[in-house]
Amino acid sequence: MGDQYALEAHGLVKIFSGQRVVQGVDIAVPKGAIYGVLGPNGAGKTTTLRMLLGIIEPDGGTRTLLGNAYPRDISDRVGYLPEERGLYPGMKAKEAIAFMGALRGLDWKTGRERAAVMLEEAGLGHAIDSKIKKLSKGMAQFVQLLGSVVHEPEFLVLDEPFSGLDPVNQERLEALVIKERDRGATILFSTHVMAHAERLCDRLAIIAGGRRRFEGTVADARALLPMQVHYTPHHDGAGLKALLPADAQREGEEWRFTMPDEGVETLLVRLIEAGHGISGLSIERPSLHDAFVKIVGREAAEEME
Amino acid sequence: MSNLTRMVRDTATVARRDFFAMVGTPTFLLFLLAPLLMIGFGAVGGVGGAMVGKSADAKERIYAIVDGATAQRFMAVDKQLRPLFSGDARPPELEIESPAADPAAQAKTLLKQDKHDVPAVLYGSLAQPQILQRNKTSRSARYLAQIAEQVVREQTDGLTGPLSKPDFVQIARQGSSIGGKSATGFFAVTALFVLTLMLSGQTVGTMAEERSNKVIEILAASVRLESVFLGKLIGMYGVAMVFIAFWGTLALLVGSFLPPDTLARMAAMRPAIGLPAFFALFFLYFTMAYLLLGTVFLGVGAQASTPREIQMLSLPITIFQMAMLGLASASVAVPDQPVALIAEIFPFSSPFAMLAYGARSASWWPHLLAIGWQLLWVALSITIGARLFRRGVLQSAGPKFRWKALLGRT
């Protein structure tokens, strides 16, 4: 096991009612990284996260969290925001955060003090002494998020943290994730929102059908697909198609094709010499979404949208 | 920090949350004062019943149709015998009537009168009195016969005063009587059962809260399920202690106002092990009974996912408790029979049966053994409950038990 990894898992398997919902997933999360787990619904993301945290035991495979084979033994060093949010409705926001800290070994007094500061910083100062049942869903969700980091964990697991949050709170959450990373924490989160993953993740894994289909950086994922060229000729005319690569497709005035292996320079010279000229030209890197579609298939990708 | 210390810390965190969540709500006041309603209804019913009974007693009369000097002796003997009877055994007031022309008809008229209830009427010669009675084995009729017998004896021998003048010397019992020990045992077992029935049953629905509001995921990720179970149990036990402290204090205050003869009767119910030790045992065995039964209820209730399922589980739980009371009561009734030993050993009836044992035996060591045995079962029940919860609700086998991990450091 390398010291550079906060979490390593090999061949994780989970079987529910005879069905293998996770089929040998490998994950290695470098220390200090923001690591995303992407996948369509039912891909096994949550089950994988729960196994990594020791909430449920795997039926096969091994995992090492912060150097320990039994994640529950070091739960004080870990923070967790589950997909199914849950707080005691009768508790005050400050108490709820302090309680979650106390479960992770933080004394109540410190927990309350930190909770008050964190709520103020998050713009929820007015809700410090409000009961959870009086808060909006988004606010309650944010309270739970603060509860998962109040004890300053070394490793933070967020399961679909952005779901159910309005754009303002999504922005707050992104800021919080970055702040936690800057503090030195390693963050593992699952999401189905590509934009968040693209903006935040240092590395990511794509899971589908209980298997890991991809592991690497966002750039690595994008590199799975060639760049796309968008070309608009100045003079459209006979013979243009013959000069373009075989996969060129016309969409209105514009032609789209895959970037040739040798680049576009030679092609552009030929097009100019043939008198077609260049009215418009752009080269686009494929998005993470495009890469995702390639990896898991269009049908699974559409499920996430 | 050792894992054991951490487990204690986690348990305390969960217990604290549950305790304050329960005690800090207006609902708790209702829970605390619920017995007041029971006592109130009981008192109203009891007072009403007693008034009806007393009123009926006041309307009862027995009659003796006798004349002159005999009537005076009859009254004197009645005055002499009457103090021997107390409470419900006391005969109805005696009325003397002078004989009319037809005493038999007069007696029947008195028996049938509407003014009083008349269970018996005596008439005719005292040597062979005729006694009309309402019931075949009327005690009032036998009482009239006994007065007649006494009056005839006095008249026959010509003696009217007491011939024997006894001195009464009181020597108080040092220990408690066999009957007193048995009564103490039964009373204590019943009290322990009622308390456990009322309070440990509360644990059945406590996991439902975490399941319905999804907090269970937070708890399961942060602490061991055994800590969650034990914490919930201890939290609810704390609530039970508040309840007992409140009602115990109230009972002591009320007890100080009880009539002296009632207090004297209660003093006769001294347990063999001594009163202070018995109170300590009562507290210890309540704790054990609460933890043992509470763990079972918590474990069973944790499997339920809806209030309807919890309601459905209440019946088998109550039947289980009644079975434990039956077993423990048998150990009080027949302490020398094997059933008593079974009740003392079977972990879920053991606290009740061992409390009864404390009432009849002064030995200490069996209690130490029993408490150790019961604690072992508390631990076992919590472990089994947590594992069942993990399998049934979280759908996962638990991690392997590791003594090294429990005693090791993180």
TrEMBL record, chain A:
Keyword Transferase tagged: no
Keyword Metal-binding included in the entry's annotation: no
Ranges of residues in domain ABC transporter: 7-234
Keywords per UniProt: ATP-binding, Nodulation, Nucleotide-binding, Transport
Gene3D superfamilies xrefs: P-loop containing nucleotide triphosphate hydrolases
One Gene Ontology term of the molecular function aspect: ATP hydrolysis activity
Organism domain of life: Bacteria
Assigned protein family: Belongs to the ABC transporter superfamily.
UniProt-listed PANTHER family: ABC TRANSPORTER ATP-BINDING PROTEIN, ABC TRANSPORTER ATP-BINDING PROTEIN NATA
Descriptive protein name: ABC-2 type transport system ATP-binding protein
Natural source organism: Stakelama sediminis
Automatic annotation (TrEMBL), chain B:
GO CC annotation terms, alphabetical: membrane
Keyword vocabulary terms for this entry: Membrane, Transmembrane, Transmembrane helix
Protein name as it appears in the record: ABC-2 type transport system permease protein
Coiled-coil regions listed: none
Mode of membrane association: Multi-pass membrane protein
Residue intervals passing through the bilayer: 28-52, 183-201, 234-258, 278-300, 312-334, 341-359, 371-389
Domain of life: Bacteria
Keyword Flavoprotein: no
All copies of domain ABC-2 type transporter transmembrane, residue ranges: 28-386
